[in-house]
Structures are given as structure tokens and as C-alpha cells.
Amino acid sequence: RNMSSAGPEGRKKMRECDGLIDSLVYYIQGAIADHEPNDKATENCVCILHNLSYQLEIELPESYAQSIYMQRRNISSNDKTAGCFGTRSRKVKEKQQDTPLPEEKSNPRGVESLWHSTLIRIYLSLIAKSTRNYTQEASLGALQNLTAGTGPMPFAVAQTVVQKANGLPSIRTMLHVSHPTVKKTAVSLLRNLSRNTSLQSDIAREVLPDLVLILPESVPGSDIVCETTVSICYTLYNLTQSSSHNARLLLSADGLPKIITISMNDSNMFSKASRAASVLLYALWSHTDLHSAYKK
Predict the structure, then answer these.
(1) pTM of the model
(2) Distance CA 218, CA 281 (A)
(3) 22-69 pLDDT tens trace
(4) For the chain: N or C, fewer Cβ within 10 A?
(5) Distance CA 80, CA 190 (A)
(6) 240 by DSSP, 3-state: which?
(7) Which helix (H) or strand (E) holds 162?
């Protein structure tokens, strides 16, 4: 577990180590099957996999990147890409949302397991069944890492989490735990998921009222709460930017007074939260059909 957080070279060596990832996944599957999701070894295994999924999109060998890109249908060879999967082109990014990964292997081995639906379902199972905060945080964090990029892999993982594995109810529960880091990681994961336009209506329906509920009434008082507030505002921004329906949902959940209060504090310590709330207000105001409702 310590070695897996030693940086890019350490992660690379561990991903390449024959049988290591397979063994970790095997152990966690056994623990879940035996109804023992809270043991320390399971926590260690999940924390290792969390670390090995960090920067995965950028650090994967070229052969994996090529195998994924060779089978993509919609993107012309003229579009420029950066890194293994990542791309900075907005047009490309929009197309990617309809571009699935190649057919999943039924028996993934080694590094292939890190983004496979089997492991995604394991993380969601641990989020639902484990009461150990580090295990919950590592499972959420691994999913956050896997959904962090803009290539086909993060979008495919996001669709598995939301639509194929019905993961939103488990993530929603984590928004209401008392442990601040678990809550922060759950919101960060939702922020990544909410960038995928095809999933926004599902996410809004399932968790938008909860996100409004956990927004602080006034400017947050600690760094971690401030970071969580920023992520909530940008998640709500993603969900409401192009959807008048979702903006109305936010309004009916009494989110507007909280967002206005946060946006009006411009002290240096909380300027990020204030800025994020202001960006969200700007998006909400762009829905002209809601202006009379806002004024009321």
C-alpha cells in the first residue's frame, strides 16, 4: 500500500507485476462473498488499486491506447489527441460520449482489470456494504480516478457506474456520512460523472436535491468543506447549464438562497467557493424562462 503511492515509476512497476492486480481483485471478491467487507486486508487491497488507478489514462502503455483508438468509429484521423487517451478538443469530447470502448474482455488480466466493469461493480459493492471509512473513500477515489479524463475510457466507466451498475444510490448515501473526506470524494466523483451529458438527467433526478441539501447555509469554515462546496457548485453547474428542467429542480430544492450567500463572500480563504457559486448563478440566470420564478 505504501509502495503504490510512491509515484509514476512505482505505479508503473506494480501495474506490470504479473498477477499482482489479479490477486488483489481476487482477495476483495472473496471478502465480499464471505460478507467481510470491513477487514483491514480488504482496505489495503482497495487502497492499492485506488493508487494504481491514479493517472491511469495518461500512464497506460501506447499499445492499450492504440487498441482503444483503432476501434473508435466516429472520430476522424485528423482530430488531434493529447496523451494516451486524453484530448483537448471540445468537438472530439462531444463525439466521445457516443463512442464505446472495444468489447470488454470476459477474463481481464493485470492492468486491464483496473477499468473493467467487474472491478467497477466491486467498488460500488464496497461503497454499499463496507462501514470502514478508508475502504469507502478508496473505492470512491478509484472511481473518481477512472472518470477523471476526457477520453473514451472515463466516459465508458461513467456510463457503467450510472447506467449499467446502478451505482448512484450507493454514491448518494455517501453524501450524508459524517466523515468529511468520504463526502468530499463522493462529490468529486459526481462532478466527474456530471460532465457526461448523456448521464446528466439520471444524475439530476437521483442526487441533485441531496447536493443542494449538503450545501452549507453560509460560507464553509474549513478547507475540506470549502473544497467540497466548490465541487458541489461545479457539479450543479454541469447539471443545470443546458437544462432548464434541472435548474427548476434546484430552485424547488431551495438551493438559490444558499448559492447566493456563498457567492457573496469574497474573503481570500473562501474565494474559490464564492467564484464557483457565482459561475453557477450565471448558468442559472441563462435560463430566461425561469427569471420570474427566480424573482419570486
Answers:
(1) 0.87
(2) 16
(3) 999 999 999 999 999 999 999 999 999 999 999 998 888 776 666 654
(4) C
(5) 28
(6) helix
(7) none
